[in-house]
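User: Fold this; tokens only.

Assistant: Input:
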Amino acid sequence: MVPTAHFPGNIIFYLIFLGGLGVFSYLIYTRIRLLLFTQKEDRLSQIGERIKSILVFVFGQRRLLNEPFPGVIHLLIFYGFIAFSLGTITIIGEGWYPGFSLPFMDSPLGNIYLLVKDSFALLVIIAIVLAAYRRWIVRPARLEPSLDAALCLLFIFFLMVTDLSIVAGRIGLGTESSGLWTPAALTISQIIAGSGATEAGFRTLYQVGWWGHVLFLLSFLIYLPLSKHFHVITAIPNVFLRYLGPRGALTKLNLEDESAETFGVCKVEEFTWKQCFDFYTCTECGRCSDNCPAYRSDKPLHPKMMTVNLRHHLLDKAPFLLSKNSNTAVTDSGNGQEWNGAAMVGAVVGDDELWACTTCRNCEEQCPVFIEYVQRIVDMRRYLVLMESRFPAELTATFKNMENQSNPWGLGYTNRADWAEGLNIKLMPEVGEADILYYVGCAGSYDDRNKKVTLSLVNILKSLGIDFAILGIEEKCCGDAARRIGNEYLFQTLAQENIEVLKNYKFKKILTACPHCYNTLKNEYPQFGGNFQVVHHSEFLIDLLDKGMLKPARSFDMTITYHDSCYLGRYNDIYDAQRRILSAIPGVKLVEMERNKARSICCGAGGGRMWMEEHLGKRINVMRTEEALKVNPNTIGTACPYCLTMLEDGLKAKDMEEAVKTMDLAELLNNAL
């Protein structure tokens, strides 16, 4: 009965199967070989944590289920494929050996499997219809109704239909069980029988279903590496290989490498193999762009399309790369030929795209397959800054100010501790030791509005008799903005100078009110030997509240919405401390914005954007302010000096600065004591 039991069916099957598998294998081989021309990167540490990632994010579909409707659709298709796989193995096995059957199929377990597979075939068909309805009727902005998407849905649809046809045909021919364990296929068989189908009709149904299944399966396999649905193959390894280091740490450039011809990335083969593997894995779901503040404010940056364009560029350049004699050389000459295609930086990825990024990590937080964007963008920025000096003109002054005065404003470094005059605050250069080293940061030292936050925090520390000191004029900019803009040389200079100073003194913890300083000191200074215990003031203050050392007594009639800082939240998972602090203040009513915590929208200052003009699209800080005003607060709470500045500017732009105030947690708590 199996179509390959006799000649010529068996020969046709062998040719089709081996030919299809050969083409698929060749496509996979070329994709893997391309990665050999890229840069090395170790992604095989912490195996236990990687296995856990597979369980939670692949089999648990955690990120996909953050959006229930599309998440459930994908869940059904995903588990349908798993249930369907054993049946497909049986069909292929029959092609080679008529009568082939998996060992457990004649047991009760086999009956349960048949029921599961039959049920999922029907559920997947329903899911495909819903997915098509969503993409072509509902049409969310982030999903384009492409031919690629249509073909992939049709492949999956017909794989399920042909599977049901095979079983229904067997039931009609009496070679399958009564259909008790395959109710969907049984129903199809009964409908066909009721229409007067003969044995020949059921045989035709079976054979068409069998050959159709094999052809659709092999065609789909060949199509996968050529389409966005390559993630069917690459998603699981990409999740397994995800970055497990500190999310706030960018890679360290070896600026003393005398063999380096360039710094940063300007050619696709200068990315690491994992970065290029990300290009293969993108599902084009659009969650990255949907949550990108730059894209949402009509800037040129479109994270999804950046990844798609880089994938196309890599594949366009494949013949050139694969023609090289060496699998390790990274050069633009292959077999004596120069690459004459589009330049990656400037053409494939435009300058304005790169400078629009706020490095907020919302794209990475929402991506279901853990594609990494920020490092990639900073790599290209590094090339523009270090190799071509091609960056927004206003950054020239910013770099000069950091180099000469160690702060982005360019105010005198000797005035860094002026805010502390007359407050009897210990200076570390004078005392040499303290329990807490308060790293004030540039904003807290120089910006008049943020000096109020500094004074509030100092007042809390002094009221409790906490032993703390500041570095005074020995404190320098932490270098966060310089690194994210791409000036790695300037960042490393500042970092090494700060670390040298910090190592001169004894302290238990570094305390800072700036999430950017916090992230840099905690996650990036260890790359240069600066291993310190660093706490953000929100962590420090909630600890004081929990210990009963702080007891807010004054009550306020205040409705507060809290804005999550990207570098405190998505970078360092600090979300609850700030809300617990606000809830501890009598009379405070906390109301959440629609996008909060991990989905919070950036204020617009990150990634060095604080020091760049915003010429294109809408102002991100105004957009975030509008989101805050929707919940009718009289106060917007923050825990970041840059967020504070940006949101206050947003309120001014909306003529709401009198009705609504922006305040830091330290100010709010200090006022309540």
